[in-house]
Give the backbone structure.
Amino acid sequence: MSQLSMFKDTQVFLPSKKFSAAANLNKQKYKILQKKAEEDYVKFWAELATEHITWHKQFTKTLNENSHPFFQWFEDGKLNVSYNCLDRHLKNTPHKTAIIFESDSGQIETYTYKELHAKVCKFANGLKSLGARCGDRVIIYLPHSAEAIIAMQACARIGVIHSVVFAGFSARALGDRIIDAKAKIIITADEQRRGGKILPLKNEVNAALELIGKATTVEHVIVQRKTGGETWLVHGRDLWWHDLIRDQKDICSSVWVTSEHPLFILYTSGSTGVPKGVVHASGGYLLGAVMSMKWVFDYKPDDVFWCTADVGWITGHTYVCYGPLAVGATIIIYEGVLTYPTPNRFWEIIERNQVSVFYTAPTAIRTLMKLGAELPNKFDLSSLRLLGSVGEPINPKAWLWFYEVVGKKQCPIVDTWWQTETGCAMLSTIPGVNQLKPGSCNFPVPGIIADIIDEAGNALDNTATGYLVIKKPFPSQIRTIWNNPGRYINSYFPQSIGCGKYYVAGDSAYKDEDGYFWILGRIDDVLNVSGHRLGTMEIESALAANSILAEAAVVGKPHEIKGESVFAFVVCKGGNTRPVGDEARRLEQELKDWVAGRIGSIAKPDEIKFVDNLPKTRSGKIMRRLLRSIVRNEEITQDVSTLENFTILEQLKN
Ligand code: WTA
């Protein structure tokens, strides 16, 4: 099946009349918004920013288009993101539940807006007492938890730039991020629980700081006691979270920052071995988060909103920490894995909490589907009114299962396409307005001017595959790559695609005959494994650092549940000494563990193949496209005349 037909389904579904009638956007309102954005997109965003954000000082300048591609939005306005997420709800809904946290082992904690505000203030005062000041960087290396949200909000409150590092990353990956961000403080926990297992966190921080050694910028490590496991604290540098906040006041005034003040840095994978620190600005990012909550997720005050993403990824930033709190929602945070202690866990959480909006990833949907419809059918899921998918293309089979078994054909599905760099959903169904096509991300949301172009920058006709671009600036877009503005330009405004005029997303896509967008996948060396972004070069450099290997090439292989799996071809040092049998199996395991140690378990290759050589062109470039065809069992149609070592093909294929 071609990629195109694999994702294509001819069925269309309409939102129910009941849903449409109550939706925040109906056809008429949507049309008005579209028209306004088309006429003057700058004015369009200015009006929304004025209406939906609480400014300490109203902006007078909306966008300076001359600063391309370093756009600035609402630059003379002043605000505080944490104020917008917490304080502005204190007057009307102080006792509304903000967070329902459920731990891996099943303990439940709830926080009202008033309680959350107090906790954030106490922690922010604690950070200040350690010398954290506006503009400093703080790394948050915590499990998916209420504390992670408290830490993020506390940073935002005092203008500190946070960088959350997913707690599954290894000490080395953490260390690289600490160095790049020049972090002053690290916030972590003793250990984390996942799926009944206990995993160290503070030990990883210790190891990261040991690797960094004297070059460290870290003055303090704040440790939350989570499991009570034995933990080694360095005197003078490390301290317990509970000790830090013990005598702190539960009021902490917000630091008013300019709209362009960086809210956070989030590291993500690109085409090289080094992750990029994506920088988001306060005002524009917040506006994107808020508008998408209202338009895409059709937010209503009595919603119980559950986005299952970990706070270590962008989806957890925008649709757990910032978007839902900014609109005053009640959110669910579940620490653990979906099958622990039983495969009913997700359904129990939805039933018990009367979840109304459920936003998850195709990989989770496929896992749940594989476990069988009997499980969700045993639960009362009638509280659900809207479903969402993100992170990778969703295949129609999984889409239909989600729609029929989970949503009982009553809930629209919003398939949201976006990226760490875009900050919030860019292409999506507007539920209540658009018809749904399983596998399509529908249309750009109002204010987003997206298109499909060829290399020269010409807009392509419907059905032609090309590069997905966003043609006009938008408030929530990446501002730069931390410490590397040159890489920012080359990655997102490359001369080679569209002559540097447009934001190039790095995905290939097409519009169908009705103009619906369909995403086909990445055009660069980025893999999407279970919705997690991984750079092939990152994994290759990790492998190549192992003393037994001479070189490695990594490609993605289609995977039924994960979307893609990691397949590595490796060459041992010392010529033709390819291990076989038990020796190969032992080394394979050793290399998998090695990658887990260098990056994290998420990057572990699923398969490793020992070969005598990699296919290379005469100039020495690895022919990855060829390797991709081989792992997909596809017929090799590309030109192999430039292949230097032709005989290697047979060995690679076996
Ligand atoms: C992919 C995640 C198809 C895409 C929010 C993008 C998707 C990358 C979708 C960004 C979707 C995300 N359909 N593909 N609905 N959503 N992607 O930065 O390849 O972790 O470029 O952000 O995920 O991944 P990131």
